[in-house]
Each structure stands twice: as C-alpha cells, then as structure tokens.
Amino acid sequence: MKRFTYQDKGSYFAIVAGSLERHAAAELGELGADVSRDVPRGLYFCCDQETLYRVLYTSRLVQRVLAPLTSFACPDEKLLYRKVRDLIDWAALFPVDTSFGIQANVSSSKIRHSLYAGQVLKDAICDSFRDKTGRRPDFSTRLAPVNFNLHLHADRATISLDLTGVSMHKRGYRKAAGAAPLQETLAAAMVRLSGWDGGRKLLDPMCGSGTILAEALMSFCRIPAAFLRRDSGYQFLPDHHPELMKKVKNEADSEIRPLPEGLLKGSDMNARNIQTAKENLALLPGGDKVELRTSRFQDLERESGRCVISNPPYGVRLEDRSRAERLYNDLGDFLKQKCSDSESYLLCGDSRLVPQLRLRAHWRKNLKNADLEVVLAKILVR
C-alpha cells in the first residue's frame, strides 16, 4: 500500500476548542509531541507512534486528532473525485461492511460548499469500493465507526483519518448533565490555568453536574482523559500497533493515585444536580471520595486557604440582569467572608458581571464554552 502523509512526515493535526490553542500546545509538548504551527482551533504537530497513542489516551485539552492521508491541488470537483478515487486504496483502509462518515470544511476555494465537497468525497470512496469489491459501504450522517475529514482551503485538499471517534472532550463520566453543561475540555483548562495541584482544598460552590470536580479529580489522581472511553478511530490506521497502545494505556493507568479525603468538595442548591454529580463522579476512580452537599453557597462553612473554581450561572441563563448582579454580589461576599487567604477562578458568561463581585480581578482570560464567549477571572482574597 502507498505510504500516507502522516507516515512519511510523522505529522498530525489536533482540533481544539477556540481560545485553548496555546494551552493545548503546551500540553502536547509535555506529552512529547513537537508542535510546529497553530491555527484557529487547531495545532499541527509531529511525533512518533507511541507519543501519538499517549496524546490520544491522556490529552485533556485536545478534541480530535487527524492523521493526514494525502494532500493535492483541487481546483474543481472533477479533480477531487478522480484524486480521491485513484490515490487511496480505500478497501485496504476499512472493510466494506463498515459504515463511514465524513466531515468537510471548505474555505477560499472554487468549491464553495462543504456539504457538496463531502458528497463528492463520499461518492468517490463508494465507487472505489464498488470497482474493487462489487459492493459499496454504507455512509452515515452520524458518527460512524470510521470517519474521514476533508479540509479544502485555497484550492488545496487534505484528506485525513479521524483517530478519535467520539470527540475526546466526551470523557465517558457524564451520563447526565444540568441545563447548561460546561464542556469537559474547558473545565480541564480551568483547572490547568488555576495551577491547582492538590496543595489546597478545592471547592466548587455551584457545581451543577460536577464537571469541574470530575476534571480536578482526573487531574490530581492522574486518571487518563480517555480512561472510560470505548470509541476510537485509531484502530483503522494501516500501521496500528495494538500492543504498543496497550503498553501506553498500562503505563498511564499505573500512575493513577488515590484521592485524599476532603480534598475535593462541591455544593449546589439543586438536589437533582447533586444527585447527578454523584452518579457522574462514581464512574471515576476516587469519585466516591468527593464530598458533595445540597446547599446554597451562602450557607457553606467558613474555611480559609481554599482554591475555589466554579462556573456561576451565566447572565444569559438568568431571567434578568438584576438577578445576575445580585448573585455576583452574594458570591463576592461569600469569598470575602468565608474564603480568606483563598484563590478563586470564576467562569463568567458576561464580563460586565465581574465587577459585581466587588473584588479586584488579578487577571482575566478570554475563553470559549462551545461558541459562547466567556471570561475566566482570577480573584485573590487575603
């Protein structure tokens, strides 16, 4: 079989949430990868196969990893169809009885529509199978066992194999969620940006379904991000090495450590949220040691030296502006009166609400929760 681009260059592409590119690049470097270039919502990186498997199993900030198969000039749909059909032996990549999916992105090209470009790619793959096997594989508009990515920019096409299956932000512990769930990769980024390492007790006083607590638990206990995941796409790599992946998983799993009693605490005024958080956390090693209670944050006990990380209800989620301002007033009072000598990291959906804490923000960082612009504010209380 002809060697693919990723095999010749050891190069891959990581899809990350907007605003997390720099932080994800640092994480990839820590895992042993060499990041060569960043673009909006993505990182080009190089690594060997063992490091690739480590990224897929342990990265907390990456959402998808793509392995480039081929790249070529593509001024029109006829050339796209011909190149896709002729350059790749698709029947050698995956069996005809396995359904496949396509994600296409088009920009600054003569082919203007992503759906149309994806349709051309699908037809070329199916026709290639028909020519070689007499059968056509099923195409799925939902997530399929094997998925390909078409990136067409400035009349140049890159076709990649998606190595992740379900997005890597879906850890597998969130079986249920609250009304406005926080994306897991953003929660992991909040924990990372806080610098929390277990030296202080961590509190989420408005924990919802427990996403921040789960990511803090996984970070401290060194639980790999994909510990509970069962879906993947890397097994369709023509040079997939199952024993090497098993080795990477075993090494990462051997680093898991227990959670000390009382290190992680969460509360929420909604009893249903607390029950959901308990169910989600119970799926993770040590999750039963996270202390949860149904309570308003205003009624929590005083404790100094804490690290508070929380995602208060966004202003857009509250019925009116005055309610949001009162909530932030109360939250600021709680931090001043019950969290002395503490560091707090609050995710705010409306930066205009930060002053309502009536505490100075040590710094602010612009982030995104899905497509919603948010601000992470660091508050120091001495």
Descriptive overview:
This protein is of the alpha/beta class and 382 residues long. Helices cover 32% and strands 25% of the residues. Strands 2-3-1-4-7-6-5 form a 7-stranded mixed β-sheet. The protein has a 7-stranded mixed β-sheet with strand order 10-9-8-11-12-14-13, with helices on one face. The protein folds into 2 domains: 5-162, VC0802-like (2-Layer Sandwich); 184-223 and 255-381, Vaccinia Virus protein VP39 (Rossmann fold), CATH 3.40.50.150. α4 (77-87) packs parallel to α6 (114-133).
Count every beta strand, where a strand is a DSSP E run of 2 or more residues: 14
CATH architecture of the largest domain: 3-Layer(aba) Sandwich
Terminal-residue CA separation: 64 Å
CATH topology of the largest domain: Rossmann fold
Give the spatial strand order of the biggest sheet.
2-3-1-4-7-6-5
Largest sheet at a glance? Answer: 7 strands, mixed
**Overall number of domains:** 2
CATH class term of the largest domain? Alpha Beta
Helix proportion range: 25-40%
Task: Name the CATH homologous superfamily of the largest domain.
Answer: Vaccinia Virus protein VP39
What is the typical, i.e. mean, pLDDT?
A: 95
Write the layout of secondary structure elements.
Elements: H1 5-9, E1 11-16, H2 21-30, E2 34-39, E3 42-46, H3 49-58, E4 62-73, H4 77-87, H5 90-93, E5 100-107, H6 114-133, E6 146-153, E7 156-162, H7 184-194, E8 202-204, H8 211-220, H9 242-253, E9 264-268, H10 271-281, E10 291-294, E11 307-310, H11 321-338, E12 342-348, E13 361-369, E14 372-381
Parallel strand pairs: 5-6, 8-9, 8-11, 9-10, 11-12
Antiparallel strand pairs: 1-3, 1-4, 2-3, 4-7, 6-7, 12-14, 13-14
Helix pairs in contact: 3-9, 4-6, 7-8
